[in-house]
Specification:
Elements lengths: L1 H13 L4 H18 L1
């Protein structure tokens, strides 16, 4: 869970706002899962 939270914060820091940030966050989470397992 910390990974997803960290990724979300990272995207927020970059300046992404709105649904775009959410979509990127979800994509990043899936990539993390694939790499993690």
């Amino acid at each position: 869970m910390s990974d997803s939270v960290y990724g979300s914060a990272f995207y927020a820091s970059t300046g992404l706002h709105g649904a775009g940030a959410v979509i990127h966050s979800f994509a990043d989470e899936q990539d993390w899962v694939l790499y993690h397992y």
